[in-house]
Amino acid sequence: MALALSAAPEHLRADAKVYALGPRGYELVAPGQNGFTCLVEREHPQTVEPVCYDSVGSAAFVPVALARAAARAAGRNEGEIRREIEAGYRSGRFRGPARAGIAYMLAAEQSVRDEASGEIIRYVPHLMFYAPNATSAALGLESPGLAAPKGAPFLIYEGDPRAMVIVPVH
Q1: How far is CA 90 from CA 87, 161, 165, in A?
Q2: Domain ranges of the chain
Q3: φ, ψ at 58 (rounded to 5°)
């Protein structure tokens, strides 16, 4: 719970909804009242991604995280899980954010999967702004992904309803 909450600014922590990973997937450990949802995501089994989503991200991304964790707990392999999630987006079970919003990833300790290389890397605290269907060119971003110049904003899921501008915070 402490690691999940470390993703959020101090003023949001007390009233945030919090999920913790248990033997069957994520379990609600704090009901929250401010519209923010904090959890330690594991988009890949080796990543540790403390994140706190606003209400828009809570509606769009938390159901995917819950489904992914439940599928892992049920013993499904990673390829099958990725295919199920992508099928969920195509079918409308999962949707990208309905509008712009923010997710905080301010924890000092985090590891993420670099989409370009597939490697698991340590990453710096950062903010994620939802930018559905955005492209780097449209936003004037020089380089997509973690290969962007150090400290520069960059886009992930380019051209996708899940697109997000990542802004490192030092």
Answers
A1: 5, 11, 22
A2: 2-168
A3: -60, -40
- Torsion sign (Cα): 89, 59, 122, 133: positive
Q: Return phi, psi of residue 3, to 5°.
A: -65, -40
Give tens-digit pLDDT for 76-101: 999 999 999 999 999 999 999 999 99
Strands 126-130 and 102-105: antiparallel
Q: What is the pTM of this model?
A: 0.92
pLDDT digits (tens, 9 = 90+) for 21-45: 999 999 999 999 999 999 999 999 9
